[in-house]
Each structure stands twice: as C-alpha cells, then as structure tokens.
Design brief:
Elements: E1 2-10, H1 16-28, E2 32-37, E3 49-51, E4 54-63, E5 66-67, H2 71-75, E6 78-80, E7 83-91, H3 99-109, E8 112-121, H4 140-158, E9 191-192, H5 202-206, E10 212-214, E11 218-220, H6 230-234, E12 240-241, H7 245-257, E13 265-267
Parallel strand pairs: 1-2, 1-4, 3-6, 4-7, 7-8
Antiparallel strand pairs: 4-5, 8-13, 9-12, 10-11
Helix pairs in contact: 1-4
The chain binds flavin mononucleotide (FMN) and iron/sulfur cluster (SF4) (2 copies).
One iron/sulfur cluster binds near residues 201 and 239.
C-alpha cells in the first residue's frame, strides 16, 4: 500500500490531537499529508468522503472516558473500503478508559482496518496556571514518541504482505462502554467577561458547534456548548472563561489527583 501519501482526520478543538497526528505522520516519513479537519461545524454537512488507498490517521479527544460525542457523526461522513488506519485518542492525563476501543469499533464499522492504536496525553481542556493538568503537553518528549510510533508503523506496514482482517489490533477497553450521567453539565457553558471583551469574534470562529454569536455582546448557546475550551484558550484578551462552581470542583479534583505524568501507550 501507499504510505507516501497519508490523510489525517481529526476533531481537535484545542489542537493537541492534531499535533500528535502530525508528529506520527512526520515519523512515518510520508511525502504528502492531507488534513481532513472535522473540528468546525461544517464537518457535519460535508460531502461523504471515500478513502480507499491512502493510509489514514484518525484522532479524537477523550471526553468523560469516551470519544468526544461531537466527533462521531463527523467521522461517519468518512467511508472506507478495508482502508488501513492508525487510530489515536488524546486525553488530559487522567484516563482514556473506553475511548480507544470505542474509536476502534466506530472506525471498523466505517470500513477502516485499524492496524495500530495509540493513547497520547495533551493539556487538559480545563487546565490553567492555577490548576495544572498536563500543561504544555504534548511536549517535546510526546512529539518524539509520536514520531517513533510513526517509524514503527512504517516498519510494520513494510513487513506485511497483505493488510486484511488478520492485521487488526484491538486496543484495551470494555465492550460495554463507560456511561457517565452528565445531566448536571448539560446547560453549563463558557461565558464572557464583558469588560475584557473587544468583540473581535475569534471565539465564534473557533467554536466547533457554532454556539457563539457576536452581537453587541458575545452570546453563547448554553445547550450547544460542549465545554471544549477552544474559545477560552483562543481568546486574545482572556475574556472567555468556564467559571462554574461544579465544573471548577471537578477540574480541581482532577488536577489534584492526577498529577503523576502519564506516558503515551501504543498497541500494534
Ligand atoms: C468535556 C471534557 C471531558 C474530558 N474528559 C476527560 C477524561 O475523561 N479523561 C482525561 O484524561 N481527559 C479528559 N478531558 C481532556 C481532553 O481529553 C484533553 O484536553 C485533550 O487533549 C483535548 O484534545 P484537543 O486538544 O484535540 O481538543 C476532557 C475534556 C473535556 C472538554
Ligand atoms: S475572542 Fe475574546 S475578545 Fe474576542 S469576541 Fe470572543 S470573548 Fe471577546
Ligand atoms: S462556546 Fe463552548 S463549545 Fe464553543 S468553543 Fe467555547 S467551550 Fe467550546
């Protein structure tokens, strides 16, 4: 198969998933890299994309131990025909639980053949200076590990005569995926500190679910917001915040209890 041309398909509101896929592709030494960015709302209505011959790297963030829900229908607009895939989840140093096995099941259903899987660590969406959670990751070491993973994938593919069902690598995780009650979070959203806001509109352009509109003030659709923190991290004046007592409590707990550095895990 052709590994000189790879496709990267990802949902990545704060960019850590994209960085890791890029690192893996560089390690693979591919001559051409095509990005299929599923982060913004237009990915919900894009034309169905058929992928046959090129190797595909698919990546999503872990939300509550699962594949970020918004990514699923967007991934489902990709169609494959026994196309080899590398699947990757990014998590904020707590745990990836059933996200990788869920991504494996989703991609297999779409016709991909996941032949290598990885769980990498990125700065937690709710991290800040006072509440560190893998701040600054993926760092140099993580990117080096992503590149090494890419090198190993190249060696693996070169050593295979054929890629078929027997080449599949099933990652760890439960078949009945973990289910958390998130009803209390359903109407929580990022908000704006109006006196710090210049109405520049950057947050609206970054929002993966189109939850932000700019009028005489910034308006946020609380129900649509998935709390991805893209607007918080991308606001040039620091005016966007997620400042809710319940979310702060959970985020502080994660920060306090999951400080030990977790390392990327690969399955191949
Ligand atoms: C709603 C939500 C839930 C999350 N749940 C988890 C989790 O269960 N475990 C974890 O380690 N990180 C969790 N994270 C952190 C993200 O997985 C992490 O920040 C990831 O790197 C974000 O990817 P991105 O930069 O591609 O958007 C969560 C983040 C959000 C926004
Ligand atoms: S990015 Fe920040 S400053 Fe710009 S409109 Fe949004 S909240 Fe206001
Ligand atoms: S409004 Fe919500 S969904 Fe949109 S970018 Fe901000 S945190 Fe993410």
């Amino acid at each position: 198969m052709n590994i000189e041309a790879v496709k990267l398909a990802y949902f990545s509101p704060t960019g850590t998933t994209r960085k890791i896929l890029q690192g893996i592709a560089e390690g693979l030494g591919a001559e051409s890299i095509e990005h299929i960015d599923l982060t913004l709302p237009e990915a919900d209505t894009r034309e169905l994309k058929e992928i046959r011959d090129d190797l595909v790297l698919l990546g999503v963030p872990v939300y509550e131990g699962r594949v970020a829900r918004t990514a699923i229908p967007r991934l489902q607009r990709l169609k494959a025909d026994k196309t080899p895939a590398i699947i990757v989840v990014l998590y904020g140093n707590r745990d990836f639980e059933d996200a990788l096995i869920e991504l494996y099941d989703i991609t297999k259903e779409l016709g991909f053949l996941p032949i290598a899987c990885g769980a990498f660590v990125g700065e937690h969406s709710f991290a800040n200076e006072n509440r560190p959670m893998a701040n600054g990751r993926p760092d140099f070491e993580d990117i080096m590990k992503a590149k090494e993973f890419g090198l190993k994938i190249r060696a693996k593919i070169n050593g295979l005569d054929v890629i078929d069902e027997s080449s599949l690598i099933k990652p760890p995780g439960n078949t009945t995926y973990i289910e958390r009650d998130r009803s209390a979070m359903a109407d929580k959203a990022a908000t704006t500190v109006e006196e710090d806001c210049t109405l520049c509109g950057d947050c609206a352009l970054l929002c993966p679910v189109g939850a932000i509109t700019i009028e005489d003030v910034v308006k946020t659709d609380n129900v649509a917001c998935i709390l991805c923190n893209a607007c918080v991290k991308g606001c040039p004046t620091g005016a966007r915040v997620v400042d809710d007592p319940m979310i702060n409590k959970i985020a502080n707990w994660v920060s306090k209890n999951f400080q030990a550095r977790r390392e990327p895990e690969i399955f191949m």
